[in-house]
Amino acid sequence: MAERRMFAKTIIDSDAFLDMPLSAQALYFHLSMRADDEGFINNPKKIQRMTGASDDDFKLLIAKNFVIPFESGIVVIKHWRIHNYIRADRLVETKYKEERGMLEIKDNGAYTISEAIPELEDMDSEDKRKLAYKNSTLPYSFSYKIKRAFEGKTCPVCGKKMTSSLKTAMPTVQHNMPISKGGVHELGNISVICESCNVSIRDTETGCLNNAEVVDTWDRINEAERRKINWFQDPAALWQTDGRQMTDICPSNDGIGKDSIGKYSLDKVNNNMSGKPDLAGQRIEIVKYLNNKTGKEFRHSSKANARLIDARLNEGYSVDDFKKVIDTKTAEWKGTDMEQYLRPETLFSASKFESYLNQRTIKKTSKNEFNNFAQHDYDMDELTKRAKGHR
Predict the structure, then answer these.
(1) Where does residue 348 rank: exposed (0-12), middle (13-18), buried (19+ CB within 10 A)?
(2) Which of 120, 203, 346, 387 has a 20 to 30 A CA-CA distance from 291?
């Protein structure tokens, strides 16, 4: 493996990089220095502790797209190939083939998560699981945090207390509709049960279980972190807040046993679980409308598209607002050099969406209309000349 590392000034002199605190910048340099010849690092947390960087520094590098994390804990330097060029005869290929296979290389040389989605029937259950986690809108740390928050709570299946001090009683994430059967890794499809019940249930559809409590707990986690409350050391702090009651969404699960698994409809899990608008359904409608208007084939399942659309929906914009933006910019750009920008990352960006929404529709003038206008102007000029000649 090569011992020297290079850094492109176009990256480290960018405003996005220089706006980060020095501790985050230093962590980036240390990660890059210890990456393999293709930019992968298998011990980012160790390097973080070694350099004295905080979790926030690491999260900032991820949020600003300077590193790309994987579910396995591996990270890759996004702009690695822009920074470094290693001759083929000296290159030692990365050992992390699986993670490398999830990446594509953009035209500018940066890594990006591949949008290619294999046919589900050709995938084994483990591949389906990885794909579901990759396409999820939940953050990378969701499973870790939600399991910690359920320490000491009762398993909704067997009724035993969940605790990480006993392997069979550890809190685990349970997908109410199994991923192997087409379920998704989203908040409305998740319960927390003990390890023993998780192993026993395996690929059985479960119904609601304690999903309502999961939804409420996740809201409390986000609120606690917004207020900078150190809930992780004491999960009970999540419940010493404003005395909110959980949303009564699912039927009561008191005394639920394994013989009642599958009792409730999956439609209730998918459509009613969070008590919030059906973001997935709205996302599908918006992307379908965009494709119909532009003749393109964007995917609503794309993580980048989902992040943009969900962010605008969460800000209070409606599906009709999206359609108005699509109509406005399609009328203005289609058939011009700007048509290439009829895409989600341009239309639905935080910096542009509102201005596009409030823009008046600009109707393009067709060639025939232009010729008609020109002929009309010519005729008027001729009439004016003749009128002057008769005076």
Answers:
(1) buried
(2) 120
3-state secondary structure 263-311: CCCHHHHHHHCCCCCCHHHHHHHHHHHHHHHHCCCCCCCCHHHHHHHHH
Confidence (pLDDT) at 40 = 95
pLDDT band at 380 (very low <50, low <70, confident <90, very high): low
Q: Pseudo-torsion of CA 359, 364, 369, 371, nearest 10°?
A: 120
Q: Report the Cα 270 to chain-centroid distance in Å.
A: 18
Q: Which two three-digit tokens encode residue 240?
A: 């010493």
Q: What is the pLDDT of residue 128?
A: 72
Q: Which of 175, 117, 157, 138 is nearest to 300 (CA)?
A: 117
Provide the pLDDT for residue 156. Answer: 92
Which residues are bridge partners to 69 per DSSP? 75
- Report the SS3 class of residue 343: coil
CB-based contact 41:75 (threshold 8 Å)? yes
Burial of 219 (0-12, 13-18, 19+ CB in 10 A): middle
Give the residues across from 174 on adjacent strands.
191
* More confident call, 63 vs 351: 63
Q: Which two tokens stand for residue 17?
A: 């990089």
Quick: pLDDT tens for 270-310.
Answer: 444 344 456 778 888 999 999 999 988 888 877 788 888 88
Of 340, 332, 310, the C-alpha closest to 322 is: 310
User: Is 167:185 a contact under the CB 8 Å cutoff?
Assistant: no
CA 136 to chain centre: 6
Strand positions, DSSP E, 148-215: 171-175, 190-194
Residue 233 vs residue 209, higher pLDDT? 209
Contacts of 125 (CB under 8 A, 6+ apart): 179, 180, 203
Q: What is the pLDDT of residues 236-259, one digit of tens each?
A: 878 765 544 434 344 433 333 434
What residues contact 341, with CB distance under 8 A and at least 6 apart?
Answer: 329, 333, 347
Q: Could you tell me which of 280, 282, 298 has the C-alpha nearest to residue 290? A: 298
Contact at 8 Å (CB) between 37 and 92?
Answer: yes
pLDDT for the residue 123:
57
Greater model confidence, 236 or 269: 236
